[in-house]
Give the backbone structure.
Amino acid sequence: MPDMKYILVTGGVISGVGKGVIASSFGTILKSCGIDVTSIKIDPYINIDAGTFSPYEHGEVYVLDDGGEVDLDLGNYERFLDITLHRDNNITTGKIYQQVIERERKGDYLGKTVQVIPHITDAIQEWVERVAQIPVTPEKTPPKVCIVELGGTIGDIESMSFVEAFRQFQFRVKRENFCVAHVSLVPMPKSTGEAKTKPTQSSVRELRGLGLSPDLILCRSEKPIDHTVKEKISNFCHVGPEQVMCVHDLGSVYHVPLLMESQGIVQYLNERLQLNVSMPRPGRFMQKWRNLAKRVDNLRKEVNIALVGKYTKLEDSYASVTKALQHASIAAGSKLNLTYIEAENLEKQTKINNPVSYHRAWQDLCKSNGVIIPGGFGYRGMEGKIEACQWCRETQKPMLGICLGLQAVVVEYARNVLGLKGANTTEVDPHCEDRLVIDMPEHHPGQLGGTMRLGKRKTLLEPSIITQLYKKDEIEERHRHRYEVNPDYIERLEAAGLRFVGKDETGKRMEVAIVDNHPYYVSVQFHPEYLSRPLSPSPPFLGLILASLGKLKSYMSKGCRLSPRNQSDVSSDEDDISVSSLSLAEEKSVIENGNGEKPVNGVK
């Protein structure tokens, strides 16, 4: 077997600088060269996994096929690379220490003193080598390159053991198989108007002092940096000018791989890691990504979607939902205009305490073309979600409910259609009169972490709009919940018009609920956003966007097919927008200018 190649992506100056997108872009470029790629995300926190985090800590909790609750960056990897990762592709300090302590308890260390060096660092290296060999594609071919993203910032005390592990690892796997890419912020203060390289110099100095020398320095900046700045970083950071690359803010993330490729990344990695791949033919390389980026740039018509949630202060709390909406909007030929509405602000109590927020929230809801109610936990905002469900149902507004959104739909229907005013979920009110949503004891043994119904599960569909969207009657989607619809009320709900058209294999757990004679009133217990891809949008999300645009009936009548040319070949009251073709020179100008506007006579 040929040697595995490793690309370690580190970050400097500040966290959240874009390491996840850049690491994903490395994989996208290499995969376009015909190289199978896998990814590992390292999070230095002591938690075993991300399952118990509040979304305000690190953003959403992303769920994998095997039920692993992991960092949202693994969602970036899966979406960009169209691969299926596993729980072991996410390493945390907690996982490493748990493994080492369990081995110590078994006597595996033969009575030796267990220390950070060599036991913790060895465990990290062994974990990386083992997981790098696991296939992540349907073909089950072993990967050739493993991209490892080290979370946090170089110099953090939490990540020291991982940095030391990779200092040793570079000699373990040999230089030609190991490459370090350092992502660093190059700020441009408005007071001076020039790029400042000192933060990058300091972070690279720190990295080199810990025993790792960067092979590539990727400068994150608001605007493109000029050659003099690159040369300055090259001189002070001990790398060649061709090893300094700029990744400035762009119109969409789909331009990032194209921008990196335009700066010679393929040629550099081919020589540095001895990949032995044929250089791609100019003009045709990464054609799917070029088409996708152009399609995004040329969207003109907008679709207004309101997201009614409880973690709206941090957009990353709903990262996968946002991406899934974007994928569906792009496929439908429209630009997504997403408005976040705090669910609490829709409640009657807010009208008394804060009437301004109450009326503003309802105004935003009324202006939307469609509504999405995503998952969540706890009582806060539940009544606001129920209010939104009732409004969407009664005003014929397209709506998609996910996880807790399904439960809100059920409670609302029981209260306002069945007349069960005491209906609620036991998560909010354990002693409610009518327990429409109940907990699943086998998935709730008392501990919170990893105890829910997690991972990919099968759902059997009855003939309905959702079956047509999926184009099959048996689907597999990822789950993350510990509450379910009470089977004792199903018959009464269905008799009143709330149809449960999707159930699990036992037929006891409700997975999909719809209301007929409505443009689009669909709620699902699973999380379809996790399997959405840029070139393959999630069917429930696509249904919501098309219904919000008034295109769903036409789409259904045409056999649920979109034009491969512009992904918007469905009739509506307005003409569909065709994707104009850009020349390579124009496309390069778009990338370099950092926006989605087509240049006119060379002027932005």
In short: The radius of gyration is 25 Å.
